[in-house]
Amino acid sequence: MPVQSKSIYEEALPADGVRVLTTNYWPRGVSRERAGTYKRILGPSRDLLRAYKDGAIDWPAYEAGYLAEMAADDRREEIRRLAELARAETVTVMCMCKDEAICHRRLLRDLISRELEATA
């Protein structure tokens, strides 16, 4: 099954399958039901996110930092769990960003997809 990504503010659709919110901060105005499953551990650390938002680091540095954070054992285990889930149904990872090109959810989607392929 596919692994998708979208903003939590986009319309929830049946095609989303299992919705997984991956933020360190809870988005304003979003109910627990709309978010589906909440995996805070898969969001970027507050320090990394703050450095990027404040302009202390650029997107390539943020991307490298996020991927380094996701290499930790506990995070890799969560990524494996989502890949296993994606074998049976669609998984949609979400955060608050509007532009997927500069958002950790795209990186996470790719990590889950690679794990899915590696364990096929």
Structural class estimated from helices and strands: alpha/beta
Strand content: 5-15%
Strand order of the largest sheet: 1-4-2-3
The helix tally amounts to 5
Radius of gyration: 14 Å
Element pattern in H and E: EEHEHHHEH
Q: Which ranges are low-confidence, i.e. pLDDT below 50, for 5 or more consecutive residues?
A: none
* Quantity of strands, as a count: 4
Largest sheet: 4 strands, parallel
Helical percentage: 40-55%
Spatial shape: globular
Question: Mean of the pLDDT scores?
Answer: 94
End-to-end Cα distance: 12 Å
In the residues, how many domains can be counted? 1
Description:
The protein is an alpha/beta fold and 120 residues long. It has one domain (3-118). The chain is built from 5 helices and 4 strands. The protein has helices spanning 32-35, 46-53, 59-69, 73-88, 104-118; strands at residues 3-7, 18-21, 37-38, 91-95. It has a 4-stranded parallel sheet with strand order 1-4-2-3. The protein starts with a strand and ends with a helix. The mean pLDDT is 94.
